[in-house]
Structure formats: C-alpha cells, structure tokens
Specification:
By secondary structure, this protein is an alpha/beta fold. The chain has twelve helices and ten strands. It has a seven-stranded mixed β-sheet.
Amino acid sequence: FFEQKKKDRPFRLLVETGLLCNNVALEPADDGGRRGDPVEIALMDLAASAGFDARAIREAYPEQVELPFDTETKMMATLNRSGQRYRIHAKGALEALLDRCDSILDPDGVQPLTDRKRWLEAADTLAARGLRTLAFAFREVDEAPGQEQLLDRLVLIGLAGFLDPPRQDVRDAIATCRRAGIRVVMVTGDHPETARQIAIATGLLENDAVDGTVMTGRQLDAIGEDGAQREKRLLDAVVFARVTPAQKLTLVDFYQKHRKVVGMTGDGVNDTPALKKADI
C-alpha cells in the first residue's frame, strides 16, 4: 500500500509536512518512547510505517522559522530551506487552513481551490467516526517571506484523521461524578463532531442528545455577554468544542457566578489560566 502511495505527490508532501511541522525529537526518550503531542507522535509513526527517513528529510529541509501552534489561529507553520529555495509547511484545523489556501495539490499538480464545501464535509465525515482531524498545506517560494506573509496563499495538501480514544476508565469516572451530584462538561479544542462522538463513547452524551448540548466557540461568542438566553444555553450545553483558552476562562467564570464550585482538569500550558481560576 505505502509503496504505491509514496509515488503520489500529495501523500509524500503530507507526510513530509507532518515531519517538518512537528516538534517531536528524532531521538527517543530514555525509556525508548517518544515525548510530545500524541498527534505529532502519530505523524512520526506514519512516516516510519510508510518508509520515510525522518532524519534525512529534516536534514534536507532545515527549519528557518517556526510559528508555534496557536489556539487562536488553530494552526502551526514552519519555513524550511530547500537548496536555494524555501518551502512553507502548515498544519491545523481545516476551517482555519482553508481561509489561508487559494489552491489545492492533486496528483496532476496545483489546481485552484474551488470546492471548499467538499473538504468541510470530508472533515465532518472523519469527525463523525470519532477521529481528530488535521489539515496540511504548503507553499514553495524563492525568497523567505516575513512572518506576516508566512501563511498567505497556501496550497492545501489534504486531510488526515487520528484515532485518539478516551481511556477505558473515563466512563466509570464520569458515572461516579454524576452519582455524587457533580455535573460534568467537556471543553475541548477538537472538531465539534469529534467531541460529540467522544462524549457519547464516555457516557457524557446519549446518541439522541438534543441540539444545544454541543456548542462551538463561535456559537459561544455569538450569543453575547448577558441575558437569560445566554444563561440557559450555557447551562444546557454539555460539550464545548473548538474553544480557545480565553473561552475556557470565560466558562469557569460563568459557572462560578452561578454559585457553582468548579473543578477542572487540563494538560496543556494554555489551560493554566482556567486551571488557576477554578476552585479545584
């Protein structure tokens, strides 16, 4: 399978982008494993399974500039040198990258990007299977652009889905919290359909959950700051998806103003403000 796929330029570029726009070290940790973001580790594993030499690729395309992943832009990018030219690599949420792309790479070369809806539907299909989705893009340039232009006029390469199942004990932990009278909500940066499927898998949501139980960051912003409608919608929501760290802080503040004792867990640096604000 991979031998055939390696002849496909979009696949090769997707794998190379996954290796170059990636902070996982080439050398394994002392215990033989890898340290870093699970999705970036999965991208390294994909490259190895497909027979790509990660070290050779990183040496052939040395990194010149990195734009770290940003929860506001929902993407990461690097500028890599390729001989006398440069190549920009980017990965992130599809809806964010689409706004930066004006063309697409297919086996016949670079073509105008005319069917954005098709790609959004493809992401929805992957997310409906509980997969975390990630889009990839690139651009080749003769001269190194400034950081402000790094994400301009990108070429969409493709989309990948990653299975990142919840731990088996999560369902029991949620049930225990509920028996104790604790209301559990999920707050995540993932695609809303991915978040919904994970919530169903962990017992946080039922399959037939009504509309409004899953709210996106954009919907959270759209309902305004005050009013009974906002209060009801926030109290009804069980899953918040595609949210920013600032919105996590807003949610903690909202629950506290409604006399709730808020306990929060999180493993990202960007979770720190909300973790500090929470009571537990």
